[in-house]
Amino acid sequence: MIILGITGGVGAGKSTVMNRLKETYGAYALQADQVGHLLMKKGNVCYQPIFRLFGEKVLDEQGEIDRRKVGAIVFSDAALLQKLNQIVHPEVRAYIEQTIEEKRQQDCPLFVLEAALLLEEHYDTICDDLWYIYVNDAVRRQRLKSDRGYSDEKITNILNNQLKDEVFRQKCKYVVENNGDLEQTYQQMDKRMREYGIM
Questions:
Q1: What is residue 59's three-state secondary structure?
Q2: Is the pTM of this model over 0.85?
């Protein structure tokens, strides 16, 4: 089984790449963010520690953790953000590693892990290959405005808080340019798949 890590900045098109790997190559795909959301649900491993950290003010009407409320608090409190990460990140990693092992037992040919913090959280240590999905800032801004309704100020803030392009390029073994022409994006992906021997 090949374990492929996919990363890149917000609006780069990581989901587009991942969906094609699922549809064309039968990959099993897992998003670290989605795992985090799952583990914060009531009854799951991160719920009680987060509730103890923040209290009732982060719950919604159903008693579930409202991630937007949590985000608003930790956005301006680095110490609380660190405590939140210490709760969530080790559990997310444990879940991912367990899922990888399950898929290995099932003879899955390709396991794809998508994570915005792939490098920061050292997921490169469990991946066989790392892809950096690259998009230039002008295209990224256009996508985030049209697809997500983000303001220029919000986009600038996000870009300033992400790893720089040169860091991604230095750490990742393969770069997929995703500036607009999907056919070109797919050709780059197919080339790498042929190198893996997965057709």
A1: strand
A2: yes
Using alpha carbons, list the distances in angstroms from residue 132 to 30, 51, 137.
16, 35, 15
Nearest to 6, CA basis, from 124, 96, 143, 104: 124
**C-alpha span between 21 and 24 (Å, rounded):** 5
**pLDDT tens per residue, range 138-179:** 888 888 888 888 888 888 888 888 889 999 999 999 999 998
Q: How far apart are CA 131 and CA 128, in angstroms?
A: 10
CATH of 1-27+110-199, one of 2.120.10.30, 3.75.10.10, 3.30.1360.120, 3.40.50.300: 3.40.50.300
- Kindly give, in sequence order, each residue whose CB lies less than 8 Å from that of residue 154, ignoring residues fewer than 6 positions away: none
Confirm if 30 and 118 have CB atoms less than 8 A apart: no
Burial 162-181 (b: 16+ CB within 10 A, else e): ebeeeebeeebebbbebeee
